[in-house]
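TEACHING EXERCISE
Course module: macromolecular assemblies
Task: Read the component lines below, then compare them to the predicted structure of the full complex.
Student: A.B.
Group: 4
Components provided:
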Amino acid sequence: MAKNQVSLSQGSTRRDFLNWFVGTTAGAFIISVLYPLSRYLIPPKSEESTARTVTLSIKPQEVKPNSGQIFRFGSQPAILIDTPDGQLKAFTATCTHLGCIVQYRSDLAQIWCACHNGHFNLNGKNVEGPPPKPLEEYAVNVRGDQIVVTKKG
Amino acid sequence: MDMEDRNQQHGKLWLWLDERIGLKDLEYLAKKKEVPMHRHSVWYYFGGMTLFLFMVQVTTGILLLLYYRPSAGEAFESVQFLMTEVQFGWLVRSIHAWSANLMIFTMFIHLFSALLLKAYRRPRELTWLSGGALMGLSLGFGFTGYLLPWNELSYFATRVGTEIPGVMPVVGPFIRRLMRGGDDVTGATLTRFYGIHIAVLPAIVAMVLGLHLFLVQKHGMSRPLSAEKGPDAKRVMPFMPNFLLRDVVGWLCALAVLAALAAYFPAELGKKADPFQPAPIGIKPEWYFMAMFQTLKLLPSYILGIEGELLGVLAFGLVGLVLIVIPFLDRGAALGRKTRFPAAFAITLIAYMILLTYIGYTVSPTK
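Instructor-supplied answer key:
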């Protein structure tokens, strides 16, 4: 009984200690579960596409006039266009609005995104519809019978 | 009731079970349950119908799991195999696809009828909130399930859908990466969506649905303000069996519509997703995302110096928020006063959704 009385008189500190101890342990446990879980859910960084130059598999003479086609620029889609006045141009094919892949509209001589009806002119400038920014343009060089596309800047 | 009476009413099995799990209490609850009767009672059926269609989803979803393979290399082919080789595979998939659409439809009706009849008023705020959560979870089911066949439409719908949270400042790109399981929509997105669709969402829905149904039992169905006075004020119908049998008629109607749609308009598969092809002309999302899709299409690139899509996304978020917190905004209804703004809000929202959906389906896809 005497022991109990001692514990009662010191009860508040002992109770405080136990509450603190259990609380900290529970907190540490929760963090030790949540931390690995949250790290697990975040996907690992994939290799950034470092491609700055791509040689296309299509030859200049095979490109149809007034047409566009998608090619791989590293891991990203890009579009090669033969403009009505016979120039070869290349842009990223990812629409600046919500990331759909654009296509060339020969009837309008414009680059067009089917998802939300965004229009870009043949300099990549957003001219109609919701896209907020122009498409990034790449430099196109014809070397012999090869088409070489290079990132500008 | 003495022992002899009970023995006469119920068989030995019933008595055995009663001793172990307390059937008597359940029987008492079932007998006590009543449904208010008034001129708007018909709207009560849509909750049950949604629940029925959800059960159809669970069943057909489990059946689809037996053949589906969640990888970018095999998903499309496994669904193609299911549609062409597996006996009645087309039927199971078509029912799953149509039932999903009907479920969202009946859920919209359930939501808007509860909103217009102000069923959310005290003490049913949590019933409303859990219903709102179930709506969000169902849209999540629709969004994640849409990708699984890995066809052109689903691929671009997911590209756009995961880009939308990406337009938010600061946290946007992180959320987009988290949703996609990487920087682009790839096979990693597919496995992520698959896991969410078949495990994460069902587990959460089971809990929230449990809460929602418990609350409906606890409070009973809400009697609209207009039926709280006058001749309808006391009219009720016993749930067992009168209302339940009517509910079953509703389920059978839903099943008939479902069977007809699945048999006459089987789900299509389209072309396999190709990350290096332009988005197909005439691409569109499921009808319940159409109003939002069309809004994003019509918004100009900049409004008052802010990117149009960001403003659109913020507006959708705001409308959703108002919808969810309406029990707390509409203080008057809880006190039995007639408040006008919830109805005005609901009708404006319905009209907007119908109008934009109509425009979405009728505009020329190339203009």
